[in-house]
Amino acid sequence: MNRRKSTNRLKPVAPARVPVVRSRTGMRAWREQHLYSLFSSLGRLVARPWATALTLAVMSLAMALPLLFWLLLDNARQLGGSVEDARALSVFLKPDMDAAVVQAFARTVRERTDVAAVEVKTPDQGLAEFRGQSGFADALKVLHYNPLPAVLIVTPRSDALAVDAAPALVAELQRDPAVDLVQYDAQWRQRLNAILALTARVAMVLAGLLGMAALLVVGNTVRLDIQGRSDEIAVMQLLGANDGFVRRPFLYTGFWYGAFAGVLSLVLIGIVEWALAAPLAQLAASYEHRFDVHGLALADMGIVLGAGALLGWLGAWLAASRHIALGQPQ
Amino acid sequence: MIRFDLVGKRYPSGHEALAELSFELAAGEMAFVTGHSGAGKSTLLKLVALLERPSRGQITVNGQNLNHTRRRGIPQVRRGIGMVFQDHRLLLDRSVFDNVALPLVIAGMAREEIGKRVRAALDKVGLLAREQAAPIALSTGEQQRVGIARAIVAKPPLLIADEPTGNLDPQLSAEVMALFGEFQQVGTTVLVASHDLALVKRMGKRVLVLDHGRLIDDFRPVA
Prior knowledge:
The structure holds two protein chains of two kinds. Chain A contains ten helices and four strands. In chain A, strands 2-3-1-4 form a four-stranded antiparallel sheet. Chain A has helices at residues 19-47, 49-81, 99-110, 123-132, 136-141, 165-175, 185-228, 230-238, 243-286, 298-326, and strands at 89-93, 115-121, 151-156, 179-184. By secondary structure, chain A is α+β, with helices and mostly antiparallel strands. By secondary structure, chain B is an alpha/beta fold. In chain B, strands 6-7-8-3-9-10 form a six-stranded mixed sheet, with helices on both faces. In chain B, strands 2-1-4-5 form a four-stranded antiparallel sheet, covered by helices on one side. In chain B, strand 1 (2-10) and strand 2 form a beta hairpin. The A-B interface holds A 1-2, 4-5, 7-14, 17, 25-26, 28-30, 32-33, 231-232, 234-243, 245, 328-330 and B 27-28, 49-53, 62, 71-72, 74-80, 83, 89, 91, 102-103, 105-111, 113, 116-117, 120-121, 123-124, 150, 152, 154-157, 183, 186-188.
């Protein structure tokens, strides 16, 4: 528009460049503007340290809480996964059964179509196993006889593990007069899995809610920022700034808020991990290190930072777009 | 350059700011809009710069029918118009140079080109030596001249000014008006709203007189 009439130029001003050059310098100008916005918005945050710190604290807490929850869950899942032999059934036979009778019963069970393998544990083997476990050896010394029954470790066929089949096998074995008790570890494991699934869902819902809170915190902060600079925005719009130009510094502000909140939430998680490290190590030791406690992986940290920056950007975009549109006729 | 066809503007409050306003301003022409306060001078300029939409009628600026300009097109229209305000509307947290550079930064011009143009514009208003000063450190007259430099730095074909001398003493007012006259000399179309009738008369340009939103006189100087 301003190039349309060459007669409109003021005398002392150099003539405009030819369009080809303009597009290349335009690209550079665009890059310069973005770099400028990136660092000037950072400068604005640093210029009011308390307000910035408060916003970051709220945001980082909102991000750290679901992360901690997820971390807890991830560690607990490992606990469930370590029970490898959970598909096996422990069939406790009546006490004082003759070894030959036990072997005969084991054969009949082995012949069932829904059973893959049967392992016989004699009372003597059971006692030896008990002795091997710490703390039991002394207690067993006071016994004058072996109170343990023979146990069959029955592994169902994998197709029999389908939801209803294993309980059917359990029920039939339970009915046999030779059987005292059938312990079905898979049931315990199913419950654990259900609890873990529920907890995972709770963590997701929590993350969603707190993520929204983080979004609103950024949005509100940016909104206040926009109100404080409404004169400046009005002048820029008068001078022909489009929405993108006006919005840009605020988007970078949101980006910085989100990225810094991400860093801070990682620090918070680090502190929590550090505070819990000693008691957790003790707990793991008491489980003979069948699981080890782990923190966030490096890739997870990257995701946290990225998600934080994205949240900040989005919150700023929502606030800025709404308030910029208010100042213009339709 | 500017064409109004039976333009009316009624504000949501019910106030009728302009009614059946028709006039045409040729490219390169300079005109004043005058009238008592509340006659519709500011509204007229706001309609030209798309700060407001007309309730009725057609407005064409720089060959573009503003009624057909959507919201996204508004910035492009405004880049073709240099605006000067009574209260200069400078950004007080930036230097004189940065204030004048703003329209060029917004238009996406490269830095070295911006430097040249800003200095040329500041030279034109006689403030080249103050480029690094803060606007607050300048006198009212100087602030207004910075505002004018900002309005012309992008070399827009149209310059509009709303009471540009409202806060200035008679001598400064005459200087500022003379400056607008110079811009017309180099081909810029200039439209100035002012209630300073004596000053307007001395300039010897076309005068549109508004009264209660209606055009009651279109005085053209005898050439």
